[in-house]
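Below is how a single chain appears once it has passed through the pipeline. First comes the sequence as given, then the structure the pipeline wrote out for it. We keep one example in the README because the format questions we get most often are answered faster by looking than by reading.
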Amino acid sequence: MNNLKEYKFNELYQMDSGISTSKDQAGHGSPFVSFKDIYANPILPDDLTEKMNTSDNEQKKYSVKKGDIFLTRTSEVLDELAMSSVAVKDYPKATFSGFAKRLRPIQDNITYDKFMAFYLRSDYFRKIINTKAVMTLRASFNEKIFSYIKLLLPDYDTQVKIGDLFYEIECKIRNYYRNFLSMLSLRNPVKLTLLKAVRSGKKQGNVCKSYIIPAPLLYQHSYTKDILFYFFYFLS
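Resulting structure:
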């Protein structure tokens, strides 16, 4: 635990806003990172299913590159503000939603993308957001809040060990989920709907009471007890 070092978030990343689009642009064109993609996935999906008709200049300005962090910029409740998703590869021609902020790394040896994907979903970081954000009619993540946030991080090599481990688990969960959905869609469409509610990031509530959700999927949406710090101790 003594190996953790404090950094200002805005000294590690540059923050930019997303693209403003019209209804006519939606549904065709180039890949698009939507609010839903960010909210439901600590790591962006391999394939972006949503499309947006964008120009070459827009694709350059609102690009999606390896290492980028995307945060939801507004929410009706603090608990859902600044939910994160990280790109672990480049997405050619892709752009991202105006309802999100993009944090692009301005260093290459302090943060590791796969580690940050899970770090930013931990209870530790969620508590930081809840204490820094201001709630009026809607909670909002902006430059001022960004400048206040400080991160406690292990050294880069430790981040690689943790990030690669969690990424391997995440990949196995995604494969499990795809296989499970295929089986469930054939046997019980009602349970399929309930499972998708959990997968989409919605509150579990009565869903968990009415159907036993597979443990790996609940794990994917919890990241609780600051488990990352447990790994800091044993891997450092």
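The radius of gyration is 18 Å.

See the next section for the split statistics.
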